[in-house]
Amino acid sequence: MSGAALALPRSMSREALVLPALALLLVAAVLAALTAGRFPIDVGRAVEILLSAPFAEAPETMEERIVLLVRLPRVLLAAIAGAGLAMAGAALQGVFRNPLVAPQILGISPGAAFGGALAILFGISGAAMVGLSFAMGLAALLAVGLIARVGGRTEIVTVILAGLVVGALFGALVSLLQFVADPNGSLPAIVYWLMGSFATATWGRFWLALPGLALGIALLLLLRFRLNLLSLDEAEARSLGVRPEAERWLVFVLVALIVGSQVAVSGIVGWIGLVIPHAARFLVGHDHRVLLPASALLGAAFVVAVDTLARTATTAEIPLGVLTAIVGAPLFAVLLRRYYRTRLAG
Amino acid sequence: MIALESATVRFGDRTVLRELSLRVEAGRSLAILGPNGCGKTTALRAALGFQRLASGRRVAPRIVGYVPQSVAIAHPYRVLEVVAMGRAARLGLFGQPGREDRTAAAAALERLGLSQLAEAMFDRLSGGERQLVLLARALATGSPALVLDEPGAALDLANQARLLALLDGLRQERRYAILFTTHDPNQVLAAADEALLLMPGGGARQGASADLIAPEPLGALYGVPMRMVGLTGTDGRMRRAVLPAFAGEAA
Amino acid sequence: MPSRLAIALALFAALPLPLSAQPLAVTDMEGREVRLARPAERVASIPIPMASTLIALDGSTRRLVGMNPLALSAIEEGILGRIFPEARRIPANIAAPNFVPNIEALAATRPDLVIQWGGRGPDIVRPIENAGLTAMLILYGTEDRTRRYMRDAATLIGRPERIGPLVAWREEVQARLSAGTAAIPPDARPRVLYLQRALSGLLAAGADPEIYNHFVIELAGGRNAAEGLRGFTPVNREQIAAWNPDVILLNSFEDALTTDFVLRDPVLSLTTAARRNAVYKMPLGGYRWDPPSQESPLSWMWLAMLLHPDRFAFDLRAEMRAAFRTLYGHDLTEAETDEILRLGTQGNARHYAAFRAR
Fold first, then answer.
1. pTM for the whole thing?
2. Cβ-nearest to A239 among B52, B66, B118
3. Of A88, B28, C203, C222, which cross-links C196 as Cys (Cβ 3.0–4.6 Å)?
4. Distance from CA of A106 to the nearest CA of C (A)
5. What is the ipTM score, two decimals?
6. In A, which residues are within 8 Å of C254 by CB distance?
7. Contact A315 C270 (CB under 8 A)
8. Domains of chain C
9. What fold, for A26-339?
10. What is the pLDDT of residues A50-61, one digit of tens each?
11. A102 contacts: CB under 8 Å, gap ≥ 6
C-alpha cells in the first residue's frame, strides 16, 4: 500500500460522513430552536427576521426583538456552552483513560459553582462573576494538583482522589453559602442558578461567556492529536516526546476555562460532558482528532435541543440542569451497556 | 548511542541502582538480565530518561524509540494512527500529523511487514501483532536507538522468533543501538551481542554475550546451577543454548 | 373621611378586658395544643414576617426577646427600625436564616413562647420542645392563615383586644373591594403579572388560590396574567411577551430591582404594562407589602387604586397614617409615606399621582 493512498485512510471516509452530518444536525437544531417559542411567531416570519437581521435597523417590533434579542443569544449561548462542555468531557476522559470522568471529578465544577454562588451572595455580576467562577474552578484544580503531587510526581489515581476531596470541600462551601444566604434575597437566586438555565441569556451574557468558551474550545481542538498521545501509558507518552504532566495540566486549565465561563452565565448544567462524548465515540470511535469535533457538534445540538424543550414545553421554564440529568442519565446507562457489550463481544 | 555513567537511583532512602554504567553503540545491542527485583526495569527507565538520577549521567538522543512490555494496553485507535504517534516529537504541542507523517508511519509498518494491518483497530490485534506495531511506532520516531522492555515475554514462540529476527535485522542493516531487558538467556544469545548482568546484592557485569551467557556467570546471577548445550540450528550450524539444571540434579 | 381602622378600634376598645391571670390555650395551625399559665411576656419568633407582626400586635417591641437574623435586618433596613430603634438590641441569634433553632441562644432569651414555622417538618420544632420550651407553629401564604396566626399570637401574648380591630379592618377593606369590583366584567379586569423574582431568573406568581399575590390581584379587580401556572414558577421573557400583561408588579425583596428592569428590557419594554408605564415595585412599610402581613389592607387598597382609579379613591396616605398609629403607635411623616410608596423612584408611574401628598 503506498503512502499516498494511506494519506486518506478509510477512517477519514467515515469522518468525512459523520462530521458534516453532525454539523447539519446542529444547524437544524439551531434553526428549529430559533423558530420555536412561547410567543407565537410563524416559522416563515422568524426566518424572514433572521435573514433580514444583518441589514435591518435595530429591531423594533416584538417579533423581531424576540427572535433577535431573546432567542438568538440564548440559542447561540446554549450551542457554544454545549460544545464546550462536551469537548471538556471528551478531553478529560482521554487524559484519564477513563470514560466515567467529567469536569465534576477534578473539583472544577464544584469550584466554579462556589465562585458563582459567592458572586451572587455579594451581588457581583458580569465579567467579575465569570472571573470569580473561573478563578474558583482553577483554585479547586490547583488544590487538587497540590494534594495529588507526591514526591515530585502526580499519579492519575491520586488526582482523581484529590478531586473527590476538593469537590466535596467546595460542595460544602456552596452549602455554607446557601446557609448564610438571605432566604428572601440571594438564597433563591443561588438555588435557581445552581439548577442551571439559559433563561437569563442576553447578548451581554453571550459576549461575556464567549471569550473563555471560544478560547478553551479552540485550544482543545488544536490539542486533539496531543490528546491521543496523552491517553497513552505515561512511559509511552514520554518516550514519544510528550511531557504528560505539564500537558495534562494545560488540558485541565482549558477545561476550567470552559466550565468557569459556562457556569458563570448559566449555572450547573450536568451530564453533557459525560453523555455526549460516549455518544460521539459510538459514532466515530476513540480517535480524539475526530472525537473532539464530533463531541462539540453533538454537544451543541443536544444542549440547543434540550434548552428548546426547557423553554417551550410548558408555560413554566423547566430548569435545564434538571432536564439534562433526566435525559442524560438513562441515555448514559444505555450507552454504557452498549459500550461494554461491544467490548465484550470483541 | 545510549549510555549511563555511574547512575545511581534512589526511591526515598532505598538505593535501587548504585553507580551503574552501561553503553550501547550504534549497530550494537545490549541485553539486561537479572533476577526479579534487582533493578532491570529501573535501569531501563533510567536509560530512557524517565528516572531522575541521584548522581551520574545519561547520554542519549532526545527521542529514544521505546517498546513497552505490556501488550495488554489496548489503544482503541487504528494501527496507522498508533504508528503515526511516533512522529509526535516533530509535530509540537498543537501539531497534527500530515501526509509526510503518514508516509513515514506506513514505511515503518512496511519495514516490519505489517502493511496489511494499517487500517485494523489496534485493540483487535493479537499480542504479537501489538508488540510489532509498537516496534513500528518506535521506528517511526526516527530515533537511532531502541529500548525494549522484555520483548516477547508475552509472545508465543513463533512471534518471539519473528521479533528477535526483526531486531537483529534492524541492528545489522540499519545500525540501530538496541537495549532490552529479558529473563531468557537464549534471547540474549539470539539477539544481543552484549549482556549486562545485574547481580543480586548490587554490582553489575557488562561483557560480550558469548562470555556472560555461560554456566558460571548465570549460575551466580540466578543462584541455580546452569548448563550449556550445543544444538544444531535449522541452517545446520551448531549453536549454543543455556538451560537450568534439572530439578534434583546435582550441581 | 375618618379611618375605618380608627372606628373599628374605638368600637373594640369599649369591650371589657379579659383577666390576664387566667391560663391560656390555643390549638395552633398544626393542631397542637399550646398552653400557657399566663400571657407570654417574653416571645421568641423564628419566622421572618412574625417579628414585625408581634410588634404590631403588642404595639411595642417589649415582648419580642429574640428573632431571626433576617427579621432583624428587615427591621433595620425598613421604617420599623426608625420607629423602634431599641429593636436592634434584641438578640437575633436564636435561629439560623434557614429556621433551624440555636437552642442554647434561644433558651438564653428565656422565652415563655417560641413561634416557629409549621409545615416544614419536625426537625425545626422538636429541639424547641426538647428544651422544655413552649412552641406555637404557624402556616403562611393565605389570608385565612394570616388572620389565624395573628389571632393565636394575640391570644397567647394576652392582647386579644388588639386582634379584633385588625381583623375587622381586613374584613371591612376586603368587603369594600369585593363590592367595588363585583360588577367589573372579566374583559375590563387588567391582566396583572407579579414577579416574585426578577434579577436572577424570572419567577411568576401562578393563578393559584394558595398564592397570596394571586388573591390580592383578584381582590383588587385584576386578573392574574400567569394563567395555567401553579405556585411560584420560573418563566422566560418570551412567555411574558406572549402573556402581554397590562400591569407588572415587581417584588420588594430584591433590593437592586427597580422598574427599569422592565422598562429598559428590549422585550419586556414592549409589553402593554411597560408601554402604559404600569410597572410598579411593591412598597415596603413596616413589612413588605407583597406577602401577607398586618399591613395587607393597605397593599390591597394601593393595588385597587392602580387597577381601577375610577372606582376607588381612597386617601391612602391617611389610611397609612391611621394604620401606623394603631399598629406601631407611630405618626408617619409625609416623607416617610413617600418613601414607603416609593414616590421618589416610581412617582411618575401610571395612576401614581393619586398617592402624592395634597
1. 0.86
2. B66
3. C203
4. 28
5. 0.87
6. 185
7. no
8. 19-158 (3.40.50.1980), 166-355 (3.40.50.1980)
9. ABC transporter involved in vitamin B12 uptake, BtuC (1.10.3470)
10. 998 887 778 889
11. A89, A92, A93, A109, A270, A273, A274
